[in-house]
């Protein structure tokens, strides 16, 4: 199978690289382009990064695959992927939740009031969203969520808790899945709401991870939202959540950061010496790096299968699970081997004087553990492959 991109897609990518080259000359470029932040480099979590997204919007890169009726350009979804591939390769924030799962769900199911209010703001990069799915007892099994939403006249009242909401401390709006019916099968009693993050009934508390990544738990205490902030139909939220995840297949499964990590390992082997000889000359190290080169190519092919299937209008659930599991595990192994190459000094963090490579390998070794959990743990991905790809029954 030929996974090469078409000439017009390559031309688009070349033009976009020219746009980024100018951005890298700005005085705040070191904040915008920060691959050392690992997965956090995707976040629009600073004024500089928000301004960068505004410039992307002004240049027409936001909402390219939307219908023209809603301000888009009706370009194939692969262009959203190419955009995010380049952004993630440069350590810049990516287009994601607002344009993909939220914007396209609103286009498909939102009422006219929600479309008029939010779609223009999303296209202009004026607002950021947080996703409220996981809960203390509903992580991998999202249908078990308990956050309750009850109708009270022209409002909905939400009470409960969400966990692992990465963007809650800087987002403007909360895209929340809540239980609206407890008398039906659990998949059928879920609805989706949009809630302002500055609502007085919301409390956001930081959760620190071992990879210096901040996520949050969010508490709802009689959070009242107007009835028009219900997305689509009541109790149809499970379908919307699943569709929203499908919208992201094109854009979130980029391979650029993994390639960067491998290239950094190659450079490390050239610069670090043992007994006066570069590690790149050590046959054992060379053999290991050659193995990683093969695995990176395998990961790239798995990622291209995600894009290839999505390009046909199919849902690459199994392909995406395979790539997510394989690529995050590979990133973890590369980071760990980088630490091995550095020896005891590799344990020094970026705050320690004399830390090799400014402690970025030590951070990567911790952050890649988080990557294997966020977005669906490796165990969840293996279950998806076993059930949907191989037809195996994994229940006891």
Q: Roughly what is the average pLDDT, rounded to an integer?
A: 92
So, the CATH homologous superfamily of the largest domain?
Butyryl-CoA Dehydrogenase, subunit A, domain 3
According to CATH, the fold-level topology of the largest domain is Butyryl-CoA Dehydrogenase, subunit A, domain 3
Structural class: alpha+beta
Radius of gyration: 22 Å
> Mind summarizing the main beta sheet?
4 strands, mixed
Number of strands: 10
Instruction: Kindly report the spatial arrangement of strands forming the biggest sheet.
Output: 1-4-5-8
Q: What is the oligomeric state here?
A: single chain
Q: How would the global form be characterised? A: globular
Number of helices: 13
- CATH class of the largest domain, named Mainly Alpha
**First-to-last CA distance:** 38 Å
> What is the helix fraction of residues, given as a range?
40-55%
Helices and strands, in order, run as HHHHHHEEEEEEEEHHHEEHHHH
- CATH architecture grouping of the largest domain: Up-down Bundle
β-sheet strand percentage? 5-15%
Question: Please, could you describe this protein's structure?
Answer:
- There is one protein chain.
- With 396 residues, the protein is an alpha+beta fold.
- The protein folds into three domains: 7-95, no CATH class; 130-236, Butyryl-CoA Dehydrogenase, subunit A, domain 2 (Beta Barrel); 253-389, Butyryl-CoA Dehydrogenase, subunit A, domain 3 (Up-down Bundle), CATH 1.20.140.10.
- Helices cover 45% and strands 14% of the residues.
- The protein has helices spanning 7-23, 29-32, 47-58, 78-89, 98-109, 112-123, 237-247, 249-252, 256-271, 283-311, 317-342, 360-371, 378-389; strands spanning 129-132, 148-152, 155-162, 173-179, 190-196, 202-208, 214-226, 230-231, 273-274, 277-278.
- A four-stranded mixed β-sheet has the order 1-4-5-8.
- Helix 11 (317-342) packs antiparallel against helix 12 (360-371).
- The chain is globular, with a radius of gyration of 22 Å.
- It starts with 6 loop residues before the first helix and ends in a 7-residue tail after the last helix.
- The model has no long low-confidence stretch (mean pLDDT 92).
